[in-house]
TrEMBL record:
<feature type="transmembrane region" description="Helical">
    <location>
        <begin position="59"/>
        <end position="79"/>
    </location>
</feature>
<dbReference type="Pfam" id="PF13520">
    <property type="entry name" value="AA_permease_2"/>
</dbReference>
<feature type="transmembrane region" description="Helical">
    <location>
        <begin position="448"/>
        <end position="467"/>
    </location>
</feature>
<dbReference type="InterPro" id="IPR053153">
    <property type="entry name" value="APC_K+_Transporter"/>
</dbReference>
<dbReference type="GO" id="GO:0016020">
    <property type="term" value="C:membrane"/>
</dbReference>
<dbReference type="GO" id="GO:0022857">
    <property type="term" value="F:transmembrane transporter activity"/>
</dbReference>
<feature type="transmembrane region" description="Helical">
    <location>
        <begin position="212"/>
        <end position="236"/>
    </location>
</feature>
<feature type="transmembrane region" description="Helical">
    <location>
        <begin position="365"/>
        <end position="383"/>
    </location>
</feature>
<protein>
    <submittedName>
        <fullName>Amino acid transporter</fullName>
    </submittedName>
</protein>
<feature type="transmembrane region" description="Helical">
    <location>
        <begin position="389"/>
        <end position="410"/>
    </location>
</feature>
<feature type="transmembrane region" description="Helical">
    <location>
        <begin position="422"/>
        <end position="442"/>
    </location>
</feature>
<keyword id="KW-0472">Membrane</keyword>
<keyword id="KW-1133">Transmembrane helix</keyword>
<keyword id="KW-0812">Transmembrane</keyword>
<feature type="transmembrane region" description="Helical">
    <location>
        <begin position="257"/>
        <end position="279"/>
    </location>
</feature>
<feature type="transmembrane region" description="Helical">
    <location>
        <begin position="322"/>
        <end position="344"/>
    </location>
</feature>
<feature type="region of interest" description="Disordered">
    <location>
        <begin position="663"/>
        <end position="714"/>
    </location>
</feature>
Length: 714
């Protein structure tokens, strides 16, 4: 929040440094590590949920082991199209907003925010349970404290920067990949001879169930298992959301990352489901299904007569648990990106679009992280409860994304020569995701799915109310602009350069653009101090938020815009005969930028008096006004006053000052002179009222005498 001053890890950097984006961007491999860990880590809870749903009909695991990779590649192919269409990131949110409309985007973004908060919560909880599977049972009672400590650590490292957090966690990711290649590869290769018997058992089981229950039952059971294991797919969205942080060329880097992610997820999830069937694993108390599988695979691992199977199982479980913590980190990384994009479109408070001095959305990280902590505390950290809440929302976004792509390619059929293939992929993705969403909602609604939908609905409603508030503010400022800009000549010429007096009194204005608020502040200050002020100085801060942090070109456009607005102030002042100049800077931190600009103004004009405008509309002001608007002017005012400089915040009442005088309840004493003045004012008011009465009487041809006896009686 604007009034909370968190410590900076370093001073503000030069946002125009050409090497900045290269140093902060991610290559395909690092993007796979940072954004793909969510999908890979879902192997700890997604495939087990699928296998549990087949209880008594485990032979169907063969179909699911084949179907999951196919569905993963269908969805990922759709998201490759999203990456190509929206290389600046935004994923499902931008796809739904652009191709289906802003309200669809609001629903998609709200679902994603809730999903990523749950991603952080369930990943940490599942990771802790995985690690505790290899420890004594009494450790399990401490899991909540461990969960909270891990989340706080992840919040801290993400505040230091996205790339730094990924590099810290890179060894864990690579250890997971290495151990699971060995574990799953050995499990499959060592039982190759069982493949024919598994195939024959699958055919026999399918024939039996078809005769007893019918093929509709089999299809429904398979779809139910797909839906209950929907958490397996959740990481696919993250890559499309984070394209803007990838290295150029972004589209190719993003699509390569998506290919790496889809391939690795398909191999791990498909292999696990097949191995459950191959090793006939069953749930054991105090152990995850993967722990039971790894124990079975390593049961006869020996070297020189030494049995090291338990050690290998523990190492694999540790890497799996730690990868789940990286997946939680993915939620903390990606949710603020979605929130920042929504804040740019005014569905969320504008502060969520701001970047910190480490180029991360600090407000979003804090909100997502502490929301995940609250969910863990509320659910007791139980994975089975969190899974129920988890997989619905991402399929809302998947479905809206595929629907938007399908609509787009159909409307582009006359312009895009390859529209048929792309439309086919989009429609297939829509069928897969929509069917899984419908079944998941139906299956999990009574088990807690209603709560997820309710929370998502609350976020949607809040987003709409926030947007309506900002819309009303835009209308107010537009009215103010229209009124105030009338004083500006139609063809504003800068006029001759007027000499500045650095030793003279100087009025310094914090402005954002050439608008009604800035002009009202300037004219009010000129009316108050114009008699002795020699110089007029304008300070403009170009704030680099999520909407501008797309590359050097976007920053150059911001610089051109800010300087053009500043030149208009200088032209207006010179046209009015006032000596003026301006200073501008560019930063991710609005408060830091304003403080730096104030320091520059003081250095050049030591006799500075500072002014800032503030729009006030009592009708639009509510209890959450402070959350929706960053009142940074008060923070800068406090700092300047401590340094011995005056700053006035000029109120701009767009609908006039309230006509009702304030109520006075306390006894007030005053000097006799003041009482005389008030008596004179009262006499004047009485005379004025009498004159108005006389005028009214003349207009109606009634007697004008103030004597009530002369007036006609009713």
């Amino acid at each position: 929040m604007a009034w909370i001053r968190l410590p900076r890890f370093r001073r503000a950097v030069n946002v125009f440094n050409p090497k900045l984006f290269e140093s902060l961007s991610l290559a395909a491999f690092l993007a796979w590590v940072g954004l793909g860990s969510d999908a890979l880590s879902s192997s700890a809870y997604g495939p087990p949920e699928i296998y549990y749903a087949l209880k008594g009909h485990e032979y169907l695991a063969v179909f699911l082991a084949i179907g999951i990779p196919i569905s993963v590649f269908i969805i990922s192919a759709g998201y490759k199209q999203v990456i190509a269409l929206f290389p600046d990131g935004g994923g499902g949110y931008h796809t739904a907003s652009t191709l289906l409309g802003p309200k669809a985007g609001l629903v998609s973004g709200s679902a994603l925010i809730v999903d990523y908060v749950l991603t952080a919560a369930i990943s940490v909880a599942s990771g802790t349970e995985t690690l505790l599977s290899s420890l004594p049972a009494y450790w399990y009672s401490e899991r909540i404290l461990i969960d909270v400590a891990i989340l706080l650590f992840l919040i801290f490292i993400n505040l230091r920067g996205m790339k730094e957090s990924i590099k810290i966690l890179l060894p864990i990711f690579m250890a997971f990949v290495a151990t699971h290649i060995i574990m799953l590869g050995f499990g499959l290769v060592s039982h190759v001879g069982d493949f024919p018997s598994i195939a024959s058992n699958t055919i026999a089981g399918a024939r039996h169930d078809d005769q007893v229950y019918g093929w509709i039952f089999i299809a429904a059971l398979v779809m139910r298992a797909f839906s209950l294991g929907g958490g397996t797919y959740t990481g696919l969205e993250a890559v499309a959301n984070g394209v803007h942080i990838m290295r150029e060329p972004r589209i190719q880097t993003g699509q390569r990352t998506m290919t790496l992610l889809a391939t690795s997820l398909s191999l791990v999830a498909g292999s696990l489901i097949f191995l459950y069937l191959m090793y006939h694993v069953h749930e054991h108390s105090g152990q995850t299904l993967n722990a039971v599988l790894y124990t079975a695979i390593t049961s006869d691992w020996t070297i020189a007569g030494i049995h090291f199977g338990p050690t290998a199982t523990i190492i694999t479980l540790i890497t799996e648990g730690l990868l789940l913590f990286i997946a939680a980190n993915t939620g903390i990384i990606t949710a603020p990106i979605v929130m920042a994009n929504m804040a740019v479109d005014r569905w969320l408070p504008e502060r969520f679009s701001y970047l910190s001095d480490r180029f991360v959305s600090r407000n979003g990280i804090l909100l997502v992280g502490f929301s995940a902590v609250a969910i863990l505390l509320a659910t007791g950290g139980h994975v089975r409860i969190l899974v129920v809440l988890y997989s619905i929302n991402v399929f809302i976004t998947f479905t809206l994304t595929m629907a938007g792509l399908s609509r787009h390619w159909f409307t582009q059929r006359h312009q895009e020569p390859r529209w048929k293939g792309r439309l086919t992929i989009s429609v297939l993705g829509l069928l897969v995701t929509a069917s899984i969403l419908a079944i998941t909602v139906f299956e999990k609604f009574d088990a807690g799915g209603w709560f997820t939908l309710l929370v998502t609905l609350v976020v949607v409603v809040l987003g709409y109310l926030i947007y309506r508030h900002y819309k009303s503010i835009r209308k107010i400022t537009a009215e103010l602009d229209e009124t105030m800009l009338d004083v500006v000549p139609e063809h504003l010429e800068p006029g001759p350069n007027l000499p500045l007096d650095p030793r003279g009194a100087t009025a310094v204005f914090f402005v954002s653009r050439f608008d009604g608020l800035g002009l009202h502040t300037l004219l009010t200050a000129h009316r108050m101090v114009g008699g002795f002020v020699k110089n007029y100085v304008f300070l403009l801060a170009g704030i680099v938020g999520q909407g501008e942090f797309k590359g050097i070109k976007a920053l150059e456009d911001l610089k051109v815009y800010v300087e053009a607005e500043a030149d208009q102030y200088m032209a207006f002042c010179r046209n009015e005969g006032m000596a003026s100049t301006w200073f501008a800077t560019y930063s991710t931190d609005r408060i830091l930028a304003m403080e730096e600009l104030a320091d520059v103004a003081i250095r050049y004009f030591p006799q500075s008096i500072f002014f800032a405008g503030r729009v006030i509309d009592n009708r639009a002001r509510g209890p959450f006004h402070g959350l929706l608007h960053d009142e940074v002017s008060f923070i800068v005012q406090d700092r300047l006053q401590h340094d011995g400089f005056s700053m006035m915040i000029v109120p701009v009442h767009v609908h006039g000052i309230p006509s009702q005088p304030p109520r006075i309840e306390l006894p007030i004493s005053m000097s006799p002179d003041m009482e005389l003045v008030q008596q004179e004012d009262a006499d004047k008011e009485g005379s004025k009222a009498k004159a108005q009465t006389q005028e009214t009487g003349e207009a109606t041809e009634q007697p004008t005498s103030g004597n009530s006896q002369d007036a006609p009686r009713n």
